[in-house]
Amino acid sequence: MTKKIFILIIIFVFCTIFAEENQELQSITFGLHWFPQAQFAGYIMAYEQGFYEAVGIDMNLEFFDGSSSLTNLREGKVDFCTAWLSQTIAVKSEGEKIVNLCQILQKSSLILVAKKNTGIEKPEDMNGKRISLWSGDFSIQPNAFFNKFNINYEEVPQSYNIQAFLADAWDVASAMYYNEYYKIILAGINEEELNTFFFSDYNLNIPEDGIYCTEDMIAENPELCQKFSEATLQGWEYAFAHRDSTLKIVMKYCDEHQMQTNLAAQSWMLHVIEESMKYNTGENSSSWGILTKSDYERVAEILQEQGLIKNIPPYLDFYGGKQK
Amino acid sequence: MTKIKRPIIWKLILGIGIPLLIIYGTILFLNFKWNTASAIEQMKDYLVELTGHNAATLNTDFSKIAQYPIGISKMLEVMSEPNEQKLYSLLSEIVKGNTSINSMSVAYEPYAYNRKKRFAPYVYREEGDILTTDLSKDQNYCSADWYSIPMLLKEPYWSEPYYSQAADNTLLVTFSVPMFKNNKFIGIASANICLENLRKTMKSIEIMGGYTFMISQYGTYIYHPNERDIMRETIFSKAVKYDIEAMRTYGREMIKGEFGIGQFNDPITGIKQWLVYSPVVSNSWSLAVIIPEKAILKIVYSRILRQMGVMVLGYLVIMLSVIWAAFNITTPIRNLMKKTERLATGDLDVQMVKIRGNDEIHALAEVFNKMVRDLRHYINDLTNATKARESVDSELRIARHIQESLIPRIFPPFPNRTEFSLFARNIPAKEVAGDFYDFFFLDENNLALIIADVSGKGVSASLFMAVTKTLIKAKSNYVDSPETIMSQVNYDLCQDNDAAMFCTTFMAVLNVKTGGFKYCNAGHNNPYLIRGDGEIIQFENTEGMALGVMDDCKYTSKKIKLKKNDLVYLYTDGVNEAMDIDGNEFSYEKMVEFMKEMKTTTPRQTIEITMNAVEVFTKDAEQSDDITIMALRYLI
């Protein structure tokens, strides 16, 4: 008798699990705004560790060239995407119906870097120097910085590499702290031979990577959006806690996309991204991913000052994620 | 057979083997140490030479190719407006003539060639054909590194190598030379150089156990045996990846264009690695070799191993020789030992030892053989001598019997006579004695007493004694005065006495009825008279020498009268001259002392007292002379 009951219980449990397994997953496409690298380690690990699947999401990760990220969202090619805050505020103010779900990176990684032997120690020393700048959103902070310190300089366009900087063709280069800066280090120049200028040190911090979706999406699937954000943060938490295995997987993704990178560079990137995520938010993952009103307003003001936006969209229209 | 606890063979093996082992070990150790150091030094020198040579060769290649853009730039700097076709054909000729050059271009600054158009002739190699195009038609090269960097630097520039999709994903490097006319920048002359040859050159450098690599001026791997690392890793990223601080330091030296030697431990295996690098001066690249010290040591090890082989072989040969020599020495010695042991058991039939050679062992064997021979002879002689002696001994025994029978042995000799009691004893020192005593009645009442000591001992003495005794007895039949008998016997003995033997003799004649005692002393010890009242008197001397010395010697006699219980004590010098083990004599004094005890003793007791005293005195000392004592107590 007990045996029969036991068998029935087993069948019941099995059926439950099976039913759970079979529960229809919601298919989602998530567009990342650059090719695979440790900058996206959290998303990759959330995907690889099945955190998305665990919340009922059948995730489809796609990597794009930066410019096309929001276009893809607008065109419905992706359901969620990552993008820079400066970029999204600008399009929002022009009426684009997007919402920030989660502000992943809190601290801007864009920096200006100069070799010490150029004698550039402080912002004013950049006067009259040859400075390389990327175009678009990458130039917002430098421009604000130059305005702030009233710097006249010779601008040269900057491509993806920093060889001109290494060859001393430029005095100052733009660099992502998690990427180009470390490439300089990996080209044999020591940290103590460089002077770095972090925009956050000059009250010009523009948080970068955030997760976005359309207004419709958050209105129709608020729960999905929340689960997605949570799973993503869980992925990041996992990535920071399991650096070695994370980097191994990241390197695998890099190889698949033929990224010419190496473990040392990706390890550094993960480290800087972690610092950026925990900037002002701390170690506890529950406070990660929040876009504060002050951050939002500061960025909007910088954009307005540079004439990149006319009016500032209301904070709550723009940000749909969790609050402190 | 005696067991040998520490055989010579072991002594030799230990005595030679162990020092030899220590010497060989030391040689090997020192050799290893010195060899290791010198091998590393040699290898370093070799690697410095190798990297230097190859870097110099590559440098020459690059410099040669660099001359083309430089030449073109120089030419165009002075030409006002070069002919387009001629420029194309010049570039084509260069590309055609240099397989290393993948393509060449002269990229003019927009409108610097002429005010109306942009111009950037480009000649490239595609599937063996030399093709031409104008870059300005479809690309804005002005922001490209190969263009902008030399333009900004105002000097020629070697780009970082790159994989060119246009050229089948081969690795290229661009050398760009800026052109100036009237100090105004007018464009870039450049050559894209294929690094396939470099790859082949690098691959062909063979380093036993090690590998070569090349890095660019920014540390990027241009050549590495692990192709994945090429253009992906820099020497600095590897330093981070494997956490080798030193590698970053060396990398910085390398990109500075330094020559150098460094060492670090492999992060995975922990094995010490040597890094030797030389710069390719023209483009600030650096060629390096990494070789594990183990690979260098392998050469040393194999050398040492060979040496060890020879040494082990040599050692074995030496030890075998030692063992062989040891056996050569010990086997005959053992043989000799066995024979000696047999010899010691008395086996004189031991076979002679046969030993070849001419050394000490051979000599020893010869001596042994001689010894056996001599021993055999000696034993033979000894056996014969013993046999001879045995026959002499038996004759001596017979002589002793005869002598014994000559001396009266039965006591009391005259049981019917109550006038006196008599006892005598002769203890010879050798088998046959030279002493004798005698007593006999000359007539009814006159008793002759004789004690004598023949010079010398043994058979001759006993024969002389027998003659003397017989003569005395014979003369006594006719004469009864002792001096006459002595005189006659002396005369007879002196005749033909070639042996010059003599005999001290004391003769007395006692009238048993009257106690008259007449005596003649021929050179003998004066006897004692112990009176019944205890008085001890030594007989006075009479004239005359020992018998057999001089035939005309005159003998006289003296007379005394014995009283009742007087004891006449006759003896030979064997008593007073009896010696203890230290050579002290018994002496007259001691004799006289004991005589005090003889006041009432029987003659037998008297003699026993004397014998005991002598025995106590001499203890273990061998009896040196015949001892003869005769005592007579006069009873009426």
What does the secondary structure layout of this molecule look like, with pairings?
The complex is a heterodimer of chains A (324) and B (636).
Chain A: H1 2-22, E1 26-32, H2 41-48, H3 51-54, E2 57-63, H4 69-74, E3 80-84, H5 85-93, E4 98-103, E5 110-115, E6 130-133, H6 140-149, E7 154-157, H7 163-166, E8 172-176, H8 180-185, E9 194-198, E10 209-214, H9 215-220, H10 222-241, H11 243-256, H12 263-277, H13 293-305, H14 315-318
Parallel strand pairs in A: 1-2, 1-3, 6-7, 6-8
Antiparallel strand pairs in A: 3-10, 4-10, 5-8, 5-9
Chain B: H1 8-78, H2 84-97, E1 101-108, E2 121-126, E3 129-134, H3 135-138, H4 145-153, E4 157-158, E5 162-164, E6 170-181, E7 184-194, H5 196-204, E8 211-215, E9 221-223, H6 235-241, H7 245-255, E10 260-265, E11 272-280, E12 285-292, H8 293-344, H9 360-406, E13 420-427, E14 435-441, E15 446-454, H10 458-476, H11 482-494, E16 503-511, E17 516-522, E18 528-530, E19 536-538, E20 558-561, E21 567-571, H12 573-576, H13 587-595, H14 603-618, E22 627-634
Helix pairs in contact in B: 1-8, 6-7, 8-9, 9-10, 10-11
Architecture overview:
- Chain A is of the alpha/beta class.
- Helix content of chain A is 43%, strand content 17%.
- Chain A folds into two domains: 26-107 and 207-318, Periplasmic binding protein-like II (D-Maltodextrin-Binding Protein, domain 2); 110-202, Periplasmic binding protein-like II (D-Maltodextrin-Binding Protein, domain 2, 3-Layer(aba) Sandwich), CATH 3.40.190.10.
- In chain A, the strands form two sheets. In chain A, strands 2-1-3-10-4 form a five-stranded mixed β-sheet. In chain A, strands 7-6-8-5-9 form a five-stranded mixed β-sheet, with no helix packed on it.
- In chain A, strand 6 (130-133), helix 6 and strand 7 form a beta-alpha-beta unit.
- In chain A, helix 5 packs across helix 13 (293-305) and helix 11 crosses helix 12.
- The radius of gyration of chain A is 22 Å and the shape is globular.
- The mean pLDDT of chain A is 91.
- Chain B is of the alpha+beta class.
- Chain B has 14 helices and 22 strands.
- In chain B, the strands form four sheets. In chain B, strands 1, 2, 3, 4, 5, 6 and 7 form a seven-stranded antiparallel β-sheet that branches. In chain B, strands 9-8-12-11-10 form a five-stranded antiparallel β-sheet. A five-stranded antiparallel β-sheet of chain B has the order 13-22-21-18-19.
- The chains are: A alpha/beta (324), B alpha+beta (636).
- The A-B interface holds A 130, 156-157, 159, 161, 163-164, 166-170, 185-188, 190, 260-265, 267-268 and B 143-145, 148-149, 152-153, 157, 159-160, 217-220, 231-241, 248, 251-252, 255.
